[in-house]
Amino acid sequence: MRGVKYVLDMAVLLILFTAFGWELFMETRFDQHSISGMGLSLFYPIIDFVIFCGLLIHVRIDRYLFQSYALAALTFGLILLWAGDLLYMESLIQDTYKIGSWLDAWYSVGLLALAVAGIFSLGPNNRRAGDSPDQPRSSSIAALFIPYGALTAIAVFLSFHYKDIAEHTELMFAGIAITAITVLRQIMVSAEHDKLIRESKKLLEQTEYLAHHDMLTGLANRRLFERMLENCQNGEAPLVNGYLVTVFLIDLDRFQHINDTYGHDIGDRIIETVAKRLRNQFPAQASIARLGGDEFAVLLHTPPAINILSLARSCSARLSEPYLLGHLELRLTASLGITITSDGTGCKTDVLKQADMALKRAKSFVREKYCFYEEEMSLELERRALMEQSLHQALERDELLLHYQPQICAQSQGLVGVEALLRWKQEDGRFVSPAEFIPLAEESGLIVPIGEWVLREACAQAVEWDRAGLPPIQMGVNVSPRQVEAPDFVEMVLRIVESTGISPSKLVIEITESLALREEEQTIEKLKTLQARGIQVSMDDFGTGYSSLGALRSYQVDSIKIAQTFIRNIDGIGEGMTIVKAMLAMAKSMDMHVIAEGIETREQFELLRDEGCDFIQGYYFDKPMAAEDLIAKYGNNEIAGSASA
Questions:
Q1: Which stretches make up the GGDEF domain (predicted)?
Q2: In angstroms, how far is CA 84 from the centroid of its own chain?
């Protein structure tokens, strides 16, 4: 349609120039000379103008159609030919044309310009990648004045000749023709504007949809879901008296493992399947959203008669059903966090936070992985936040301290080593359980600076005991996976060993079984570097994480510590004792020392001693104690085992 408008604009110009050319130039001459004999010479200027208008139309449609120099030469040549035809027609009227006159040279220059334009057109045009053929907005606005400017010019001319207006019928007919073309053009413009409005409206609707929906599943996204919650909070949602507002927060367990193992295409298909199952599982009026990744949310207005617990169970079971994807049959579980309110208040922030707290609790469940929000969860979250804030300041305030639990030789019952255990005594004198603050330190990353302090303090204490006359013992220090994964872990350990003066052979680095199971090459190399310096490595809580023989061979640890979980169940003949015997036999075959921790009774001690366990650690001998208490008890101990036995 744009090309048609350009043609109409050029037609207006053609009519305008033809009418004024006849009125001002040609009519008076043809009154004196007969038009017969001129033949086609009369139409040459008109044909030239039509060709020139055609050039303008093409350039307006695509401004990069011609190379710039080619366009300039082409325009110059056409203007010369047009002017030459006008001069030729004038010479015919005046009967002054002669063959070989300067007018023939004029034509030659015009034709030469056209030839030059052809040469320039062989080169590359001005179009660049991403350039649009559309004309600038200023050019489009100028085109609007063509029909109205033409009508204005005719009206002004006729107003000056209103007394003899009957003698200017050509201009009157030209005005009528231009008016008709203008009306037609306006009809086309109006139709085009209507089309643009419809397309813009459709585009806005599509943009709105894209901005508020997930493209993979077609579900609402986080932005739209939060808007629904805001509407609920502001009273804009159609809540019915007595209805409950329930929010489900759903997260797929170990979904990242699926992506890593099978690829994102399979992961996307699982997400699509989950979306379909959620649509089928919840009532039609439920608002279902994909918040991102493998996290979904459901907003539901339900009467009290609906059993939310039953709905949660069925949803959890449905999402745990096998996912059949071609030749693959994959199984996943989903964790559900649920919060319920009766009035819809506090929807956006509080409700999502409450559902998220319930979701985190649900992830810790083995079966029936759903959890309803309870007020205690908020209190627990606030308490953990305050504890984390206090933990940041614990080092500065000297609130952290170490207690040491003795390790006893099973045969001689003499002291052979200790394990350094971290304690936190707050300013008010209250001790915080390690089971509470150590996982928090792991999550926040504080375990790295705290772990360095523990290692330095333990090594310094071992040197102090040695100077105080305590029998030679080994110092066991636990390190977390985050510490070992730090780039400067080896340098940090060696720096502390050198600065404190502890003998490397007296230091035992205790790693967790979860770290050993990763069998990462960098971690193995770090621990081997420490062992090469004389530092020993022990695997703590052996057996709780399904340790593999491959991991033991890779790390080549010097000793293992049998977890208390297995010690509790030994009775000499049961399954528990069979497992412990197997661990002892395996360790001996790999030339490793064995430490049994959590020994609380004489029977446990004697059974382990008789089976060849090397060292004992537990309440049967001693609880963890302060450094001064340990030196007071063992400083003059006459029976001490060898740390290297």
A1: 243-375
A2: 68
